[in-house]
Amino acid sequence: MFVPSEILFAMGLYPFCLEIGAALFAGIGQSSRGLLEAESYGVPTDICSFHRSAIGHVSRNLFPKNILQAATTTLCDNNTKTTKICESMTGKETIVLDVPYEADDYSVNYLAKQLEDFTKRLEIVTGQKMRQEAFERAIEYSNQTREKMLEINELRKDPHSPLPGSNALGFMFPGYLLIGSPLSVEFFASLAAELREKIEESKRNNRIPPKDIIRILWLELKPYFNVDFLTKLERDQGVRIVFEETNYVYWDALDPQKPYESLAKKLITSHYNGPLERRIEVTKRLAREYEVDGVIVFSTWGCRRNNAAVPALKRELNKMGYPLLSLDGDCVDDHNYMPGQFSTRIEGFLEMLRGRKATTTSPHYETCAAGVA
C-alpha cells in the first residue's frame, strides 16, 4: 500500500496492491477460498486476513503476473513476510523499503537513498530509464490529487455535505494506489466538483440539516465483504460518518526538484508510522475540526498495531470528552462478522451519545467522559 506509486507511474508501470486485491475479492464473496488456500499452504490463521487471503489468491494464480514484489516496513509487520511468501510462489525478487521511525533529516536521507536504489533496480528489471520529465509529471499529478483531497476534506465540514463516510472509506484506492497518475486527479477533481455543487444546491433550496444527527469520526477501515451495516447506520439510525482517519492528508506538497526526499518525508511522517502520540494528536485534531459526537474504531482481527493502540486512543479521547467505541470484527473474513453483537454495541453507543446531546448544548466539553470499549 505505501510503496510510492509516483515512482511506478513515472516508469510506466502499474502498481497492484495485495491488500486492495484481497478487499476486491472479499466484495465478490471469494475470501473463504483464498483463506482456505493460504491455510493449506501453512499460513497461520491468527494473522491479518488481508494478507492471508491475498496469499491464497496468489497461490491460485488469480492476481496479475508481476515483475517483482515491493513492500515497506511501515504500518504492518506482515508486509515483508507476505511479499517473501509471494516471492516463493512467483519466482520474482522482493524489494523492501525500510521506513525509519524517527522523522529527522538523517531518516529522510536514509530512505531517499533507498528510493533512488529502488528506481535503479526498476530500470534494470524493465530495461528502461526513469525520465526526469515523467517523474516531475507524476509528482505534479500527486500534488494535484493532494490539493483536491484537501478541498474535499474542507467541504465535508459543511453540514450540507451529502458524502457518506461508508463510501469514503474506499478512497484509499485512488488516494494511495493511484496517486501520481491522472486517474487519481480525475477521481478527486470530479468528486470535489460534484460535492461543491450538491452543497450549493442544498443551500439554494434552503434545506436545513437535521440538528439531532450523530456525528462520528471513523478510525481504521471497514468490512469489505458483502455487508451493509455501515450503509444502514447512516441511512436508518441518524448517524453521519463525517470523516475517516484514512482520508487525512498528513503530508506536505512534494518538491519536483527533490522527489526522493519529498517521498521519503511523506512515508516517514505518516500518522500510521512512528510514535503512537503522532496518531493520537491527529485523531484529536480531526475530532475537534469535524465537531464529532463520538469516535468509532474498527478493530480487525489480527491487526496487532491498531488493537494495541486502542486503549491509549480511548484514554486520550475520553479526556477531551469524546467517547470511543471499539468494534471487533474483520475486514475480509465474513466468518468473523457477528451482526447481533455489532447491532447491540452500536445501539448502546448511539443511545449514550444521544443522551449526552440531550443534556448539553455542546457535545464537546473539556471534561473526562465515560468511554465505551
Automatic annotation (TrEMBL):
TM regions (residue ranges): 7-28
InterPro entries: FldB/FldC_alpha/beta
Pfam families: HGD-D
Keyword tags: Membrane, Transmembrane, Transmembrane helix
Taxonomic superkingdom: Bacteria
Family: Belongs to the FldB/FldC dehydratase alpha/beta subunit family.
Record protein name field: 2-hydroxyglutaryl-CoA dehydratase
Species name: Candidatus Jettenia caeni
